Amino acid sequence: MLENLINILSNLPKELTVLILGMMPVSELRGAIPFGVAIGMPVRKVLFLAIVGNIIPVIPLLFLLEPVSSYLRRFILFKGFFDWLFERTRRRAAVVEKYEALGLVMFVAIPLPVTGAWTGCLAATLFKIRLRYAFLAITTGVLIAAVIVTTITFAGKGLIHGLLLAHY
Fold first, then answer.
1. Residue 47 near residue 150 (C-beta atoms within 8 A)
2. How many CA atoms lie within 13 A of 66 on its CB side?
3. Distances, alpha carbon 21 to alpha carbons 45, 58, 59, 97, 132, in Å
4. How far apart are CA 36 and CA 9, in angstroms?
5. Which residues make Cβ contacts (< 8 Å) with residue 4, sequence separation at least 6?
C-alpha cells in the first residue's frame, strides 16, 4: 500500500512528497523519514517536513473527529465502522486512558503500527482529553517519534551498508 502511495506521489517535488507522507495516516513519520533519507534529502529538511506534515492534521482532527463521527454514526454503514474504530483504539490505548496526556505522549511517541498522531487524536477524543493538552501531548509524541525513527533509519542504513561492504 505504501509503495502505491509513493508511486502516486513520485511526480511531485520530493519535499512535497515527504510532507504528504508525514500527513498520511498510513505512513506518518514512520514512512516519511526513511523515504526522505533514502532519496538523499538532507536530514534536517526531512525531519522538518516529516514533523510538520505529521502535525498538520492534528488540529482539524481534534476539532472535527467527534462531531463528524457523531453525525456519520447515524448512518448504518458508518456506525459499524466508527464503533469498530473506537473500540479498537480503546483496547490499544489503555496507557492513554490511565495516564491521560502523559499516556498520550507515550502512545504517539512509540513508532509502531496503530500508534502515531492520527490514532493519538482518536484516543484523545475517545478519552476526552482537553484540546490544548491533547495537542501538546501529540506534538511532543511526534517529536520523540521523529528522533526514534531517525535513529532506527540511520542504524538500519549503517547495518545494511556494513553488510554490503563485508561481502564486497
1. yes
2. 13
3. 14, 15, 18, 28, 25
4. 13
5. none
Within 13 Å and on the Cβ side, how many CA atoms surround 111?
23
* Residue among 72, 65, 78, 110 nearest 92 (CA): 110
> pLDDT tens digits for 115-164?
999 999 999 999 999 999 999 999 999 999 999 999 999 998 776 656 55
Find out whether 123 and 104 touch, Cβ atoms under 8 Å.
Answer: yes
Q: Is the pTM of this model over 0.90?
A: no
Per-domain boundaries in the chain: 1-56, 57-168
Judge residue 37's burial from the number of C-beta atoms within 10 Å of its C-beta, 0-12 exposed, 13-18 middle, 19 or more buried: buried
Q: Which residue numbers in the chain have pLDDT < 50? A: none
**C-alpha cell of residue 30:** 514512520
Specify the residue for cell string 532506527. 152
104 vs 130: CA distance, rounded Å = 12
Q: Considering only CA atoms, which of 158, 167, 147, 162 is closest in space to residue 43?
A: 147
Our CA angle for 72, 73, 76, nearest 5°, is: 105
CA distance 29 to 31: 5
Phi, psi for residue 130 in degrees, rounded to 5: -55, 145
